[in-house]
Amino acid sequence: MDKKTLLAIFFVFLCWLFLSSCSKPLSALQQVKNRGELIVLTRLDPTTYTINEAGEKGFEYDLATLFAVKLGVRARFVLPKQFHDILKLTAEHEADFAAAGLSVTPQREHLLHFTQPYYEVTQQVIYHYRSRRPKSLKYLNDSFFEVLAGTSHAENLRRLKKDNSSLSWVEANNTNVFELVSMVNSGLLDYTVADSNQFQTYRSQFPQLNSAFNIAEPEKIAWAFPLSNDNSLYDEALIFLTELKESGVLKQLQDKHFGYSKNLNYVNICTFRRHLQSRLPKLEKSFHVASKKYGIDWKLLAAVAYQESHWNQHAISPTGVRGIMMLTKATAKHMGVLNRLDPAQSIDGGSHYLSTRLKKIPERIAEPDKTWMALASYNIGLGHLEDARVLTQRQGGDPDKWIDVEQRLPLLTERKWYKKTKHGYARGKEPVTYVKNIRQYFELLTQYELATTPIQDNINAEDAFNIRTPAL
Question: Would you list the DSSP string of 80-105?
Fold first, then answer.
């Protein structure tokens, strides 16, 4: 074989190698990185993803966005028209994965590849107080009972029907769980089913609803990927979720979105809604003025005021604190308040004082932890907060994370712990409840603001960016 022939064969071999390498498909992970975006299927729900004038938010939104940041791309969220389309489109590779609060069920595991779970929920039958509480499935017969089609709710009911042949319900399309819960509230339905975390967040809007019983054991919630021989993106998600759990960030996200909404009961919420109509309108302008002056979201100031006095300008405690913000004589004098019973002065003084608490919290502490700690110090004092942070560090927790510090604050009531602190005994359970209530009031005020036309208080765009809004 002559030299020319050998060169020709070698050239053909090189071309074959080049073409073979070019034809090899990119991995799912590399496709995402080349595309520059992570395509995520989700659903509109307070527990997963919401979007309004303030932008996008939600537990699944935060979780998927953090994953995209780790990959060095942006997240793009896709909202199918119907819930069951999420499962279908994921299985058909129409998106990279689904982050939609999906329960891991045996039926779904045949269609999708689930990550490890990141929290659990129970499925609850929801009813209105005007109806007698159903004690079991047999009480649901001959009723207007509707659930969302394509959900694990419907899947579990079909399983239960095997032993309860008279059980009947309707599976609704072109709707969502929130609308079904709303229909129970308005009397159009007798019952529906919602996940426990869903109902927890809905409860503030529907205080007359309650959960009757669970229809299944707790179910695990996870991300769902299409079944494939290429697990590169899936494996990266497993690593990400493991790191998030080990770092404590996952627990923080759960607290951020679900940690505040268990605290208020039916009476609390109904009373708040009544005061929202009768008392807030007279005070709202003062909250907006203070918001602009001190750079704190007006809703947070109003939430603090409601926790302190229920917006009663004549409120007086047995210990002598008075007014809308329940200021002590010493605090009022220090903040330049001449008349604690004057609503505008009290709101200004309380807002000023809260701004000083915020400045005392170390800058390294990120939001919303910084705001929650400032509120705790507003209630219990900075010294006792610092004692709790020291205890947190000694016990291996993170003193810069509210979810760790709030667990140690109650220890300040126990002698074996408070005798080891600098400032001694404190009613440490109070600031924990205090912060949880304020977070709930803040959420209720956020719903109110979205449903009404905000007061025009001449806050320009530049000012708005400087206003502290805790990310709930």
Answer: -SSHHHHHHHHHTTSSSEEEEEEE--
